Structure formats: C-alpha cells, structure tokens
Amino acid sequence: MAELADGIFNGISTGSVLLLAALGLSIAFGLMGVINMAHGELMMLGAYTTYVVQNIFKGMGAQWFEVYIFFALIAAFMVTALMGFILERGVIKFLYGRPLETLLATWGVSLILQQFVRSVSWGLVIGIATFCLLFFGGWGITSFRPNWDKIKTWFLVVMFPLSVGIAIALSAVLGNIFKLAITKPWFGAQNVDVSSPLWLRGGTTIGTLQMPYTRLFIIALTITCVIGIYLFLQRSPWGLRMRAVTQNRTMSACLGIPTQKVDSLTFALSSGLAGIAGCALSFLGSVGPNTGQNYIVDTFMVVVVGGVGKLVGSIVAALALGTTNYLIGSGAIASLVKPITPLYDFFTFFATTSMAKVMLFALIVVFLQYKPAGMFPQKGRSVEL
What we know:
Helix content: over 70%
Strand content: under 5%
Distance between the termini: 49 Å
CATH topology of the largest domain: ABC transporter involved in vitamin B12 uptake, BtuC
Structural class: mainly alpha
Strand order of the largest sheet: 1-2
Oligomer: single chain
Radius of gyration: 24 Å
C-alpha cells in the first residue's frame, strides 16, 4: 500500500505537469480548431526564459535568487504569450478552416524554434530586430498611401534585399564596436540546468511517502492556474466572448463579438500557459531544444480524452492519464496483483516507461471507440450541426 500511495502521488504530480501543458492547448484547440504542433516549443521557450531569469538573479545576490521563480513565471508567460500572438497574426490567421495546412505550418514553426534556440546569438538578434524594424515598419507606413496597390510589388523587390543587407551590416558593425561575440550561440545544442531556490529543495515525509517540495510546488501552481483560467472564462467579459465563440462562431460574429480579437487573445493566453508549463518543467530535468517534444503527444492525448475545449475534462484526463501511466510503469499495479500469477506477469511486462506508454495508448484507443468526443463532449449548435 505504501508503494501504491507513492505511485499515486507521483502520478498526480506527473498529471499536474500534463494539465499545465494541456490547459493552453485545450483552449486554442477547442476555440479555433487549431492543431498547434509548436505548443511543445512554446513550453521549451518558457523553460529557457526561466534559465535566463535564473542567471540574471544569480548575479543580484542570494536573497534575490530565492524569489527568482516568481519573476520567471511572469517572464515565461509574457514571452510565450507574445510569441503566440505573433504566430497567430503572422501564420495561423491565414489558415483557419484548413486543419492540415495549420498542422504542417505549426510543425514547421516548431522546427524553426528548435533551431533558433540552438543558434541564437547577438548577431542573429540584432539582425532580426533590424530587419523587422525596416521591412515591416516600412510596410506599415507605406501601406497607407493611396497608390499602395500599384507600388506594393516594387516595395517588396526593393525593401526586402535592402533590409536584409542593412541588418547584416549593422549586426557586424555593432559587434565590432561593443566587442560582442556575434556568432557565439547563447545556449547551443547542449542541455542547460535550472537550479531550484533553497526553499524548493528537499521534501517532506508522511509515513513512508516522500513528497519533494518541487512536486508540491508544481501541484500548487497547477491548481492556481486552473482556478485563474476558470475565473477568467466564467467571470470576465473576454472569457464570456471566448466561450460564445467556442460554441457558435457565426452567431457570435452576428452579435458583434470581434472574433479575430478573440482568436488572438485566445492564442496568446494558450501560449502563455505553455510558457508557465515550461517554467515548471525546468525544475524536473535539464532544458534543451527538444524539451517540448517529450510532452506534446501526451498533451494532445489529454485534450482528446478529456473533451475538446473542456476545462473539467482536461483536469480529469490529465490526472487519470498521469496516474495510470506512472502506476503501470513503476510496477505498482504489478505488486498489487502479485498473488495472481497471470496478471502479475502481464503487468510486469509493461512495467517500464516505454511499455507503460504503449499500454496507455492502447487503453486510449479503446476508450475513444466508445467515447469519440471524450469524457466531456462539447455542446452547442455548431456541434449539433
């Protein structure tokens, strides 16, 4: 029983991580029908943001380092929310109603973000910032001219190579002036480690049950995020608009709800929650360019099993999948059925991380045969039609 209790606690903590990751994906997938394959990379950006904030606070002294996690959570949310807003405005808004193209586009974005983290340097940042300022700034100013349609092609032909050339030259000049390591990557391909504050190290014991403070903090963070999202969706005007668009987009537009603004806000909120999940993940292991890929499949499974766009469904599914996966993979279930030899042999065969995942996916396939819309199916006229 002690082993079972330990397995349940670790399963709940694993489910909390999955729930943090799935919260944002559930909102975006439920509202816009967007299969965002870059969601894992947004989590990765949140984890790297935590690493950067940690290094900044290390230089400020030990007393500041103890509270850096709260600033890291805010920074991770803001960075990934901004990235999500840019992604929605720059890519996804042109692909609504085309799920296959959206999947491929966001998968391409995920590869770009992985390579960006491996290669980002002062030269790359200066070059991108200069190019965006010149090209997109010029586009925004020039587009107000009455003859914009006539000169658009000439603008692209002239400004694009000019902006690229100035960006490369400025990056090289500033690097020489300020002695910056222009081509040296900030992070590289290797993993980096995030250190916990002293008050998150160690753990507490109840009987034989060991509960690390880091896991307890992640569970508390998940509960806080769930309550915050619930209050936002149920009590705020924008939350009401989001729920209306989720149930019937066409009718919501007819009633004057700005659906495009709702889409942008939703995707930014979804991405911000991914950043918070990445911040939490950084305390469970090393952070690398492929960090998000380890969770993206499980996150989609939570959304599908719980029911698209359903907060309660995501909570139940995340805890159920996380606990089931850990109990099977740790051998806790095998220990319980040890007197029954056939069952013991069966669960012992699946008592590894990889085989437990295989069994979990098989159970999900069987479940979806009977409940294809998930535990809590979506309701509304658009669903009925």
